[in-house]
């Protein structure tokens, strides 16, 4: 298999709350970087945004919902 024909799949997990415009800009910048730096075909790049609630995301052993209190 030629590595240049493989489909890059990027998964981004982040807290809920970003706008569609913010996600558009993120997707474009990541796609541009993969095209420029990895030689990926733009149309083959897939980006998935996985949004989680503050109750379902922890950092440093503490739920994010508890950090904002």
Helices and strands in order, then pairings?
Blueprint: E1 9-15, H1 20-38, E2 46-52, E3 58-59, E4 62-63, H2 64-67
Parallel strand pairs: 1-2
Antiparallel strand pairs: 3-4
Question: What name goes with the CATH superfamily?
Answer: Macrophage Migration Inhibitory Factor
- Shape descriptor reads elongated
What is the CATH topology?
Macrophage Migration Inhibitory Factor
Strand order of the largest sheet: 1-2
Helix content: 25-40%
What does this structure look like?
This protein has one domain: Macrophage Migration Inhibitory Factor (2-Layer Sandwich), CATH 3.30.429.10. It contains two helices and four strands. It has helices spanning 20-38, 64-67; strands at 9-15, 46-52, 58-59, 62-63. The protein has a two-stranded parallel ribbon with strand order 1-2. A two-stranded antiparallel ribbon has the order 3-4. Helix 1 (20-38) links the parallel strand 1 and strand 2 (46-52). The protein is elongated and about 45 Å long. The termini are far apart.
Provide keyphrases for this structure:
Macrophage Migration Inhibitory Factor; 4 strands; two-stranded antiparallel ribbon; 33% helix; two-stranded parallel sheet; elongated; 69 residues; 2 helices; alpha+beta
